[in-house]
Amino acid sequence: MPAFLVEISVIFAREILEACVIIGNYRKVVKAQKDKEDPWEDDQVNKFLKIIWLAAAAAATVAAVMITALGIGLNAAGGELDDKVADIIEGVSKLVAAVCIAQLSLKVPTWLGIYPKKNKIMLSEEITRRDLWFNVAWNIWREVAEIGAFLIPFFLNDEGAEAIPLSGIVGLLVGLFCGALIYAVSMILKDKRRLCIFLVVITGWLSMGLFTGGCHEIEEAAGETPYAWKIKGDFWSKKEFPMALFKPFGYTNSPTILWLVCLPVWAIILAALHIIKYQKVKKISGKEAAETDTAESVAIILAALHIIKYQKVKKISGKEAAETDTAKV
Questions:
Q1: 94 and 176 in contact (C-beta within 8 Å)?
Q2: Cα(22)–Cα(186) distance, rounded to whole angstroms?
Q3: N or C of the chain: less Cβ packing under 10 Å?
Q4: How far is CA 70 from CA 155, 163, 217, in A?
């Protein structure tokens, strides 16, 4: 039995990298709340950072227990996990994750303070504990569940089970290293606008990959559309290092027609949503600024009228006083 299998390392590295990107982006966004115009206290930031780790740990535990129970049940029944069912479940979970990550991409400018917090559109986009719990937990559950689902055949067929420990450790280290590099880039970017662009791009890119991958999983269960092309060679394979690490972001060496349609369509939708949101924020901000200018102008006019009236009253009172003095004389 082999002690090391590349395919096992690849699945570990790919899913761990995806989890690192998600956790890293949420951590960076939460930490950035201390630098906004209305900054969070350190205690509040620490509480939200703690929620991220608790949600991740809870989701990973639940996924591990579920996969273990499924593996034991299938082994006892002498059955196998139906490929079509697994593809549909994985596809739906990726589609839900794609929507969650897209929402993160759209909210990043608000959370980093690029868009005005007091704007009417932004009032409903505060970071909440419930959203943080769900988004982190769902994505981490999905990553761990995908690793477990991939490993089930090795357990059931007793084929390659001995390779799981070493292969898993190697994949874990590769995924953590790549995730740490991406997080380090976000830490280096001190300018909020550059950081915003980086986080929006990386989350949007990941959302594109998840959406396309989810559609492809369902496509595999229902029947694949024709392949547009196939790039040969282990280096370019989506199942081998290093290109396998780009699969979460939409890479494949053998895209189907559906794959090629879904990737740009989702990219266009995300870009359009960002543009629409920016235009709305700009329009409302301009309207609020105009209202502020109008209010200031009215206040200045009223103040001027009060001064003019005061001067008139003062002039008339002085004239009457002079007439009274003349009469006395």
A1: no
A2: 13
A3: C
A4: 11, 21, 20
> Residue 256 pairs with which residues in a beta bridge?
227
Query: Coil, helix or strand for 217?
Result: helix
Nearest to 7, CA basis, from 211, 118, 167: 167
User: Who's near 224: CB < 8 A, 6+ residues apart?
Assistant: 256, 258
- Long-range residue pairs from 52-56, CB within 8 A, at least 24 positions apart, any chain: 52/23, 52/26, 52/27, 52/132, 52/136, 55/132, 55/133, 55/136, 55/137, 55/140, 56/19, 56/23, 56/136, 56/137, 56/140
12 and 168 in contact (C-beta within 8 Å)? Answer: yes
pLDDT digits (tens, 9 = 90+) for 50-78: 999 999 999 999 999 998 888 788 777 66
Cβ neighbours around 305 below 10 Å, total: 10
What beta strand segments (E) does 8-132 contain? Answer: none
Q: What are the pLDDT digits (tens) for 198-249?
A: 999 999 999 999 999 999 999 999 999 999 999 999 899 998 898 999 999 9
Contact indicator for 46, 30 with CB cutoff of 8 Å: no
What integer pLDDT is reported at residue 32 of this predicted model?
86
Does pLDDT of 195 surpass 70? yes
Count Cβ atoms below 10 Å from residue 263 Cβ, excluding itself: 21
What DSSP state is assigned to residue 163? G
125 φ/ψ angles, rounded to the nearest 5 degrees: -115, 25
Q: Which element (helix H / strand E) includes 68?
A: helix 42-77
Beta bridge partners of 227: 256
Q: How many CB atoms lie within 10 A of CB 92?
A: 13
